């Protein structure tokens, strides 16, 4: 039987049939004649590829034109497709052999009753690939409890099923052992990829230990590709059990490969490999995605997980956000990232509170990587990281090993002006000839992107989130000026978030000078600052001729009707800008209404605040308005250079 990721086999080769569906629209082409097909529909509609494009209308149309001739239907990733429409199509397709409909979004999980209905409606089906959700009732109702476990056994035991993601709702320690036993067997047989047992506080360490034991006993290592146990009340013992299972699986894979090489080199017969799991199966370690966020994992558990990561663990995502990871855990995870450099693309340690010491430990370990790393997304927000930690991270991430890093999240730390200035080195241009070329393309499954929409972005950061870091504290401009100076020649960054950094009109001037030079930034957020009308004027002047910026967020900056006039002029002069967010400023109802009439959705000006009764710094602001009216200011000087 075919694997879920491979194309269907056929007794005789045949080219892809036309017409073919694309983006929910029918693209007419030349229909290929198939011997034995007594009807044009039988020749043209055997294999339908609607991945990411199926909608209710397209499925309804397909029912009418295919005349029951469909043998294979793939609507994977079509978030607008509904289960009912797919089931209706299956009922009218008596020759349907393969149905693939995974990743349909939040409402795309099939219940066991839905699965039964599909097989009942289409007895010819030999492969059904989908996401399944099962609710495990409490043991108070023993009959319903056993029935729900029976549903898990049924859906994971049916050889016709390919479950991309099994979502377990509720559950307890005892039920978790049953679920993970079935999951281990199904994953080992290639019928299950992912288990999500998140948001169940009754699971705890017992469920994590059960998962580890069942993966080793019935899966021959760690056959699951994805494991999510967010908010499951897991503590250090549970994390250490999972880490032990992962580490032993990787060691067994390495030992088996070593034995295979020894046989090949020796050129003579050697005894069969003896599995540490007590059977003749080859060991496996397939873990790609581990999500243990929002638990109670401290340093020992985090350190064990970091130590388990190695070259034989093909992990691409590790999420430990909202735990209590400390210095020891940061160091071990950093070393693990360096060892898994070829595969790990996303690391999330946000909301851990490890401070500068943890950031320095993480950076020191990352700096030990001696080969190009695949890391693209690094999330370190809400960790009380200061200037010292920022300097250490910048030094590690600017090494040649991390030139593929694209998204860096340092929001809600305590970087201050010095920390922001230290990060400016991350925005210095990188010669594409010096960047590594060894990595493979990032799949949509891993959530990465190496190029912008125009396909011309060079190596370097794609987005930088520095929200709420006191970058402009006490009017200090050194940090923002250093960052903006680096951005003047940067061609990789597309999104910059400076929200809530106590920025003043002078800081807005620094940003505006950068915008006069940078022609690749597309999204800029300077909301929740203090740039006032003067800052709005500086930005409007700089952006009037900017060819790249699509979105500008200037929420809650105490901008009044006077400042709004500069934004009005900007939108009239620059049609490239698609949206300006001006919510929670001090615009009058009349101005808000006029914005809506003139620019529609290009301006979001809802929920305005009441203007202050006494205007602050009347003399300074009056002088500033005079200068604005005369066309002066730093942007004008910059343009005159």
UniProtKB/TrEMBL annotation:
Entry-linked InterPro entries: Leu-rich_rpt, LRR_dom_sf, RanGap
Record-level GO BP terms: nucleocytoplasmic transport
Annotated GO CC locations: axoneme; cytosol; nucleus; perinuclear region of cytoplasm
Residue ranges with Low complexity bias: 1-13
GO molecular function: GTPase activator activity; small GTPase binding
Cross-referenced PANTHER family: RAN GTPASE-ACTIVATING PROTEIN 1
Protein name (record): Uncharacterized protein
Organism name: Micromonas pusilla (Picoplanktonic green alga)
